[in-house]
Design a protein that fits this description.
Length: about 120
């Protein structure tokens, strides 16, 4: 339905787009108004998006692996690929609750390690 409306009113849509991006009215050339108006913001939008994505990726890489925890993880949990904050690591003394799944993985690792050493 939407594609049919777009095809039926193609000239009106093209005119609206040209008017609002600055390519309709002249300047030294047809794209002058675009690059000095709407198009000049493309670089800024790209830069802001790249910085935002970099910050998000950095935070996701260094934060605690417990779901929903935004603390920085400094303590690897041996036998697992998890890096945890001091609040969620079982061997770092703190007050508060710990995450059951991570503790279960750690328990399994310790049992397997003790079974090999026997």
């Amino acid at each position: 339905m939407g594609v049919a409306v777009l095809i039926a009113f193609f000239d009106a849509v093209r005119h609206w787009l040209a008017l609002h991006t600055g390519t309709l009215h002249g300047g030294p050339d047809i794209y002058y108004n675009f690059w000095s108006g709407f198009g000049s913001d493309l670089g800024e939008a790209t830069l802001i998006s790249a910085v935002g994505l970099g910050v998000y990726t950095g935070v996701r890489k260094v934060n605690c692996h417990t779901k929903g925890c935004w603390r920085i993880g400094h303590h690897p949990l041996e036998g697992t690929p998890y890096i945890l904050c001091r609040h969620h690591h079982p061997n770092v003394p703190t007050e508060g609750a710990s995450h059951e799944h991570i503790l279960e993985e750690h328990r399994k690792y310790k049992e397997a390690r003790d079974g090999r050493n026997s």
